[in-house]
Design a protein that fits this description.
- With 280 residues, the protein is α/β, with parallel strands linked by helices.
- 48% of the residues lie in helices and 11% in strands.
- The strands form two sheets. A five-stranded mixed beta sheet has the order 2-1-3-7-6, with helices on both faces. It has a two-stranded antiparallel sheet with strand order 4-5.
- Helix 2 crosses helix 5, helix 4 packs antiparallel against helix 5 and helix 6 packs across helix 7.
Length: 280
């Protein structure tokens, strides 16, 4: 995980109220501003509750502050899903911000609180709606669909290289292990395998990879990004330009299939390149 910046706690609040997104709309901005205002009003009211108020403030801020500080060291573990414990406290503060407004007239008080509460529900419901129905942002890695593609398209003369044990486990769960000969045509990177001695014996090589993510705040959104061809050695770049892979993409995963021939490149470099692409 990347080292968190000062803005990360704000993005966490954003994510836990209306859902963090890069693509802004006017309604999204208005909803965020409304929730921020009500949250500030709630903080002002909660401070008046003395002991219980202090407990609620610690409940919200202490986990984020401590994790943020610890993540400034050698290893960062600042991820929104680890802060789920603060969700009830955020809801309490927002509710306090709604019901704590003062008015001289009971009717006006009822009307203003009800309307404000409805507006907050609409703002947070907007984020909840996208979490459920916006597949671009909130779809998990679809290993089932990718496994179905590989099983359907793979041939007997094919070999598959998985970059991690976890990816191979996901593919095996959906039956890919039965498609390839586990001893001869199914490898994990880097397992000390000399792929230059193995890969040329096959017709195709399959290399599944994960798409890029912002792991601190996103539930599932992933970024497609171009392969960094310029970091390859010249001879491998030349081979790559002449042997463009077939690309199969599903939510969160892209798999590359190369057609092999006698014009063999350095497959150790090619596979290492795929399994360690630099992040944009």
């Amino acid at each position: 995980m990347p080292t968190p910046h000062v803005i990360e706690p704000f993005l966490t609040f954003w994510n836990f109220t209306i859902g963090y997104r890069e693509e802004w709309t006017l309604f999204h901005i208005m909803a965020l501003c409304l929730v921020i205002i009500v949250f500030i009003l709630g903080l002002l009211e909660v401070r008046k509750i003395h002991a219980w108020g202090r407990l609620i403030l610690l409940w919200v801020f202490l986990p984020i502050i401590m994790v943020w500080l610890f993540s400034q060291g050698k290893m960062s573990f600042y991820v929104d899903r680890y802060f789920l414990v603060i969700t009830p406290a955020i809801i309490l503060i927002l509710a306090t911000g709604v019901i704590g407004q003062k008015s001289n007239f009971s009717k006006e008080l009822c009307f203003s609180n009800v309307m404000l509460g409805m507006m907050v529900l609409m703002a947070t419901g907007y984020g909840l709606f996208h979490t459920k129905f916006n597949e671009k942002y909130f779809t998990r890695d679809d290993w089932r669909s990718m496994a179905n593609i590989i099983r359907h398209e793979a041939q007997e003369e094919d070999v598959l290289v998985s970059c991690t044990d976890g990816w191979r486990l996901a593919l095996d769960y959906y039956g890919v292990g039965a498609t390839f000969d586990a001893d001869k045509a199914y490898f994990n990177y880097p397992k000390n395998t000399d792929f230059n001695n193995v890969v040329p014996n096959y017709k195709h090589i399959w290399i599944p990879t994960n798409n890029v993510r912002l792991p601190q705040h996103h539930l599932g959104y992933s970024y497609n990004f171009p392969l960094a061809v310029d970091i390859l050695p010249t001879e491998v770049q030349t081979w790559f330009s002449q042997h463009k892979p077939d690309v199969f993409s599903v939510a969160g995963i892209t798999t590359y299939r190369y057609n092999l021939d006698d014009d063999v490149t350095d497959f150790n470099i090619l596979i290492d390149w795929h399994c360690s692409q630099p992040k944009p």
